[in-house]
UniProtKB/TrEMBL annotation:
It catalyses: (E)-cinnamate + reduced [NADPH--hemoprotein reductase] + O2 = (E)-4-coumarate + oxidized [NADPH--hemoprotein reductase] + H2O + H(+). One of its GO terms (cellular component) is membrane. It is found in: Membrane. This is Trans-cinnamate 4-monooxygenase. The keyword Ribonucleoprotein does not apply. It holds the Pfam family p450. InterPro entries: Cyt_P450, Cyt_P450_CS, Cyt_P450_E_grp-I, Cyt_P450_sf. The gene is LOC111310044. It is an enzyme of class 1 (oxidoreductase). Keywords: Heme, Iron, Membrane, Metal-binding, Monooxygenase, Oxidoreductase, Transmembrane, Transmembrane helix.
Length: 505
C-alpha cells in the first residue's frame, strides 16, 4: 500500500516537474509577471519563503522586491500589494476584476466551497447574500435598536469586575469576560439571545468550537499541502478534523439556535417587525426561496467569525495599549469626565462627542490591525496590475498593515500616538477615505460591520476607562504585546492579566 503510494507520488512528481517547466517556459513568453524570488519547479518559492506569510514577513519581502511582487507557492500564485496607489487599483479602480475571494483547502471546508458571503466569489450569490444581510445587520437602525443591549452588556462587565476582589489586587484576564460580552452583543442581534455567564454550557461549547475553527483556519501549518497537491495526502488528518469541527458547529447553530427560533416564531405572531431579530429576516429570505438552509447556516458561521473575534481582538489590543500608555489612558478618562461629567456612563451617541476616544480607537486599529492583510482577494480572469500581468485566480493580498505603518508615509508609525489623528492625520477616517489607512478595507468587499464595530469599541473602551484604572499586574511595568499573525489575522499572543482598580466616581 505504502509502496504503491510512493510510486504514484514519484510518477506525479515527475509529470508535475515536466509540466511546470513547460508551463513556466510558455508563461514567461506570454506574461510580464510581477517581480519576486525565482521559483523552482513544483515547489515554486515555498522552500525559500516558508509557510509563515504574516504581514511582517510580507513587508520584508516588499522591501526587497517592491510594492507589487509575486510568490509562486507550489501551484498557487500569490500577489502582494504594498502601496496606497496599488491598493486603490485593487479595491477601487479595478474593484470588480479583483473583487473575488480565494479559498484554500481549509476555507473550502469551513465555507462549503463558498456557500457563505465572506468567502464567495464576486457575482450573483455574493450580491444576494450581501443584500439579504444588510437590513438585519448593517444599518443605523440596527445600531439604534441594539445599542441599549451593548450598553447593558458592558455595564454588566463593569459590575462583575467591580465585584471580583482579584481584579483590583492581582488582576484578572479581562478578555474572558469581554468575550462573553461580545458573544452577547452579537447573539442579541442574531437570535435575541444572551448567555448568562462564562460557565453557561452552551456558551462554553460554542466558544470552544469557534476557537477551534479559528485556530485550524488561520494556522500556517497546512500551507504545504494546500500549495503542493502531491503533499496533500499528508494533510488527511488535518482536513478530517476540520470537517468534524465544521459539522459540529453547523449542527450546533441549527439545533440550539435556528430550530429554537423557528419554534418561537411559530408560536408567536410574526407580523410585528419591531420584534424581529436578524435571523427572522434571514429565514424570511429562505422561505421566499432566495437562499437555502445551508446558506442560512453559513451566514451564522460568518457572523461568529467575522464579527465577534475581530471586534474582541481590537478591544483587547486597545486595552493593552491603554495599560502600556497610562498618560493616554488618563487623557481619555479626563475627556469623558469633562465632556460627559464624572460618573455619567458613556453611551453610543456620546461616542461622537469624544474625539480623543475616537482617536484612541483609530490608533489601535492602525497599529494593531485585526485583519492586516484584509480578507484575500482574487481575480477570476487574467488581469493587469501596476503594469504587470496577473494570471487568473491569483490570491491578492493587500498589506493594509504596512500601508498604515510605513515610515515613508507616517510619522513615527511604531509609536502609539492617538494625537496624530488631530495633527498631521486629522483628515483620516476608518471608512477608507485614505488608501494608507484601511482597517476595514474599502470598496465592494469592504467590511459592512464597521457600522457596528466602531460604536461597540467606543462604548466598551470608554466604560472600562471611566470605571477603572487599568494597570499591569503587580511587579510588571508593561504587559506583553507580542503578536500572533495568521493567514490574514492578527491578535495578541498572550491574553494578559490586567489589574482593574475601581474608580470612585
Ligand atoms: C474591529 C472589528 C472589525 C474589523 C477590523 C473588520 C475588518 C474587516 C476587513 C479588513 C474585511 C475585509 C475587507 C476586504 O477584503 O477588502 C472585513 C470583511 C467583512 N466583515 Fe469585518 N471587521 C470587523 C468587524 C465586523 C463585524 C462586527 C461584522 C458583522 C457584524 C463584520 C462583517 C464582515 C463581513 C460580512 C465581511 C465580508 C464582506 C465581503 O466579503 O463582502 N466585520 N472585515
Amino acid at each position: 500500500m505504502d509502496l504503491l503510494f510512493l510510486e504514484k507520488a514519484l510518477v506525479s512528481l515527475f509529470i508535475t516537474i515536466i509540466l511546470a517547466i513547460l508551463i513556466s517556459k510558455l508563461r514567461s513568453k506570454r506574461f510580464k509577471l510581477p517581480p519576486g524570488p525565482l521559483p523552482v519547479p513544483v515547489f515554486g518559492n515555498w522552500l525559500q519563503v516558508g509557510d509563515d506569510l504574516n504581514h511582517r514577513n510580507l513587508t520584508d519581502l516588499a522591501k526587497k522586491f517592491g510594492d507589487i511582487f509575486l510568490l509562486r507557492m507550489g501551484q498557487r500564485n500569490l500577489v502582494v500589494v504594498s502601496s496606497p496607489e496599488l491598493a486603490k487599483e485593487v479595491l477601487h479602480t479595478q474593484g470588480v476584476e479583483f473583487g473575488s475571494r480565494t479559498r484554500n483547502v481549509v476555507f473550502d471546508i469551513f465555507t462549503g466551497k463558498g456557500q457563505d458571503m465572506v468567502f464567495t466569489v464576486y457575482g450573483e450569490h455574493w450580491r444576494k447574500m450581501r443584500r439579504i444581510m444588510t437590513v438585519p445587520f448593517f444599518t443605523n437602525k440596527v445600531v439604534q435598536q441594539y445599542r441599549y443591549g451593548w450598553e447593558d452588556e458592558v455595564a454588566r462587565v463593569v459590575d462583575d469586575v467591580r465585584k471580583n476582589p482579584q481584579a483590583a489586587k492581582n488582576g484578572i484576564v479581562l478578555r474572558r469576560r469581554l468575550q462573553l460580552m461580545m458573544y452577547n452583543n452579537m447573539y442579541r442581534i442574531m437570535f435575541d439571545r444572551r448567555f448568562e455567564s462564562e460557565d453557561d454550557p452552551l456558551f462554553v461549547k460554542l466558544k470552544a468550537l469557534n476557537g477551534e475553527r479559528s485556530r485550524l483556519a488561520q494556522s500556517f501549518d497546512y500551507n504545504y499541502g494546500d500549495f503542493i497537491p502531491i503533499l496533500r495526502p499528508f494533510l488527511r488528518g488535518y482536513l478530517k478534523l476540520c470537517k468534524e469541527v465544521k459539522e459540529m458547529r453547523l449542527q450546533l447553530f441549527k439545533d440550539y439556535f435556528l430550530e429554537e427560533r423557528k419554534k418561537l416564531a411559530s408560536t408567536t405572531r410574526s407580523d410585528n417587525n419591531a420584534l424581529k431579530c436578524a435571523i427572522d429576516h434571514i429565514l424570511d429570505a429562505q422561505h421566499k426561496g432566495e437562499i437555502n438552509e445551508d446558506n442560512v447556516l453559513y451566514i451564522v458561521e460568518n457572523i461568529n467569525v467575522a464579527a465577534i473575534e475581530t471586534t474582541l481582538w481590537s478591544i483587547e489590543w486597545g486595552i493593552a495599549e491603554l495599560v502600556n500608555h497610562p498618560e493616554i489612558q488618563k487623557k481619555l478618562r479626563n475627556e469623558m469626565d469633562t465632556v460627559l461629567g464624572p460618573g455619567v456612563p458613556v453611551t453610543e451617541p456620546d461616542t461622537y462627542k469624544l474625539p480623543y476616544l475616537q482617536a484612541v480607537i483609530k490608533e489601535t486599529l492602525r497599529l494593531r490591525m485585526a485583519i492586516p492583510l484584509l480578507v484575500p482577494h482574487m481575480n477570476l480572469h487574467d488581469a493587469k496590475l501596476g503594469g504587470y500581468d496577473i494570471p487568473a485566480e491569483s490570491k491578492i493580498l493587500v498589506n493594509a498593515w504596512w500601508l498604515a505603518n510605513n515610515p515613508a508615509q507616517w510619522k513615527n508609525p511604531e509609536e502609539f500616538r492617538p494625537e496624530r489623528f488631530f495633527e498631521e492625520e486629522s483628515k483620516v477616517e476608518a471608512n477608507g477615505n485614505d488608501f494608507r489607512y484601511l482597517p476595514f478595507g474599502v470598496g465592494r468587499r469592504s467590511c459592512p460591520g464597521i457600522i457596528l464595530a466602531l460604536p461597540i469599541l467606543g462604548i466598551t473602551l470608554g466604560r472600562l476607562v471611566q470605571n477603572f484604572e487599568l494597570l499591569p499586574p503587580p511587579g510588571q511595568s508593561k504587559i506583553d504585546t507580542s503578536e500572533k499573525g495568521g493567514q490574514f489575522s492578527l491578535h495578541i499572543l498572550k491574553h494578559s492579566t490586567i489589574v482593574a482598580k475601581p474608580r470612585v466616581c
